[in-house]
Amino acid sequence: MQEILDASQASDWRRPDPAHTLYLELDSGRVVIELAPAFAPAHVANIEQLAKEGYWDGLSINRSQDNFVVQWGDAAENEADRKPLGEARATLPAEFERDADGLAFHVLPDADGWAAQVGFAGGFPAGRDTAAGLAWMAHCYGAVGAGRDVAADSSNGTELYVVTGQSPRQLDRNITVVGRVIDGMERLSVLPRGTGPLGFYEDAGQRTPIRAIHLASDVPDAERSALEVLRTDTPLFDELVEARRNRRDGWYKRPAGHIDLCNVPIPTRAVE
Amino acid sequence: MQEILDASQASDWRRPDPAHTLYLELDSGRVVIELAPAFAPAHVANIEQLAKEGYWDGLSINRSQDNFVVQWGDAAENEADRKPLGEARATLPAEFERDADGLAFHVLPDADGWAAQVGFAGGFPAGRDTAAGLAWMAHCYGAVGAGRDVAADSSNGTELYVVTGQSPRQLDRNITVVGRVIDGMERLSVLPRGTGPLGFYEDAGQRTPIRAIHLASDVPDAERSALEVLRTDTPLFDELVEARRNRRDGWYKRPAGHIDLCNVPIPTRAVE
């Protein structure tokens, strides 16, 4: 894999749009989230509004469920104690899926049990059903989604979760995925697991404080994380996937002949 | 799922054999590993010998690679500094697969991209190829394997790893799986990620000390973890799998109609 990356050209990489990139600032450092307005335009717009207002600043990560997700938002139990949403919307339509038309979709030829077709769209692992004309983002490691209650349209982006375990693909098409962590996953995946139901912390003191969540475009240039993400629609990416599907180094005695959507690495690199 | 478990009978549960159960004792508490002599008899026998000798006592967890594995063993770089193996064997045959004949295999009917067939054998997630007459344990979350070098027969069970991320099924049939963590995964999955190559810690001080690894049968009754694991070969288990394959509660708007081998929960419960 490293050999393939070493042979990459500048055009094999892309720079995530700072206007659609979140910085989650923890005491342990920064987590970088690329938002996906092509899949969840209303949620992404609301999340960006919330970030501009400093909505999450001073809130906390309230949940860490082993082999599943971490989640942050407003832990206040009473409506009256909750942080005001400012100009952000309190309710949004469900954005579980989108029209497959007009969406560039780079197909992964490998079989998948959860979706008719899987692949990558805009750099995000995704599923597609061409018969139904629908596409959606997949719950792979690092996927960021908008927590909701029972009603499909009960999410507004204030409660966000990140997948930290085995891909819970049963959530696909059941909840709005808004983006993906592209750097700093290890700051989330190591958080102590909560011992309450669903991995919520039982004591407020166990929560992880959120210093701030900012849009990258609202952060001075010098403080931005200069990152590039490998494009997923290039011959080089296909080559990388094949190198992982059938590993040819001496260690592997039996190439798998298959790769799961959520086992495909999407490399990120720091740039000057 | 809880409703189904609440309706379970004593016969739906099994008690892992203490003679084939390891207790990994960390400062944070105990991790319980069920060994699988039916799949890896030589490795399991060697691991049990090493545990009896206290081989790992005072060694450490030396590697934590995000979304992949933690690993422990002897971190000494020079052969001369390594802990002696005592009566344990220094080399073992590879036990990547076993004969499928004579192995009770409870088939999971769901499609799988990595194996002709998947299911459960002796309570362990497993793959099978009936044409080839072979079966093997699958690298799901919590799987415990024996690290090796390039040679297929270079593992002896001293270096053990545990899967802490998205199921790395490409390792199936390439390395000897020796068992599965049945309790305490959250003590391993939160370990800080190492910043060296492959997630090894760069400083010895970052390693997690191992107080001891004992066989449960060598621990006094009063100090044993009294655990039962749900049997995977019962109608109740099938019912539980179906409840997860097609979730019928109000929250899910679209049952997946599918479940991946590594998304099937195998519940454990504490007993008196």
TrEMBL record, chains A, B:
<dbReference type="InterPro" id="IPR029000">
    <property type="entry name" value="Cyclophilin-like_dom_sf"/>
</dbReference>
<dbReference type="InterPro" id="IPR044665">
    <property type="entry name" value="E_coli_cyclophilin_A-like"/>
</dbReference>
<dbReference type="Pfam" id="PF00160">
    <property type="entry name" value="Pro_isomerase"/>
</dbReference>
<dbReference type="InterPro" id="IPR002130">
    <property type="entry name" value="Cyclophilin-type_PPIase_dom"/>
</dbReference>
<dbReference type="GO" id="GO:0003755">
    <property type="term" value="F:peptidyl-prolyl cis-trans isomerase activity"/>
</dbReference>
<keyword id="KW-0697">Rotamase</keyword>
<feature type="domain" description="PPIase cyclophilin-type">
    <location>
        <begin position="29"/>
        <end position="217"/>
    </location>
</feature>
<protein>
    <recommendedName>
        <fullName>peptidylprolyl isomerase</fullName>
        <ecNumber>5.2.1.8</ecNumber>
    </recommendedName>
</protein>
<keyword id="KW-0413">Isomerase</keyword>
